[in-house]
Amino acid sequence: MKFTKTLLTTALFSLSVFSTTQIAYAETNNAELVEQAILSDGEQLKRVMEAFEREEFDTVISLAQPLAAQGNVMAQSVLGFAYASREEYFQAFKWYQKAAEQGYALAQSYLGFMYDNGRGVKQDLNLAKMWTGKACDNGNPKGCDTYRMLNEGK
């Protein structure tokens, strides 16, 4: 989870700088999705991330919910993480799925993890492989590692 938090922090703290080169999200090739999320809702995402850093997940949820409902992939992923941190896996799954379906590799990786472990959803190794494979295809190294392990039978 610490690795995940670092990735989200890195992406969201680029909010203060709005250029594509500085929004380069080293974890994925989803720079366009990240840039779009930041440019459309930068100030609100910054407040979300500040609450996230303080681990104030109730605040994160209340601030991110409106953005996530509008389709902001970063807000959806942060909501997923906040709910997972509270062990509300069904809600976490729901928000990761929304971001994953938009092509956000980080959320695709988490969705695969949730299918692999039966968190918030019935365990399904085929869907775990599918989502981690998509994450890998979209440049997420963790998704590639998980996809490889799933195909090797763990």
UniProtKB/TrEMBL annotation:
Keyword terms of this UniProt record: Signal
InterPro entries registered for this protein in UniProt: Sel1-like, Sel1_AlgK, TPR-like_helical_dom_sf
This protein's record includes keyword Signal: yes
Pfam family, one: Sel1
Entry keyword annotation includes Signal: yes
Signal peptide feature range: 1-26
Name recorded for this polypeptide: TPR repeat protein
Organism from which the protein derives: Avibacterium paragallinarum (Haemophilus gallinarum)
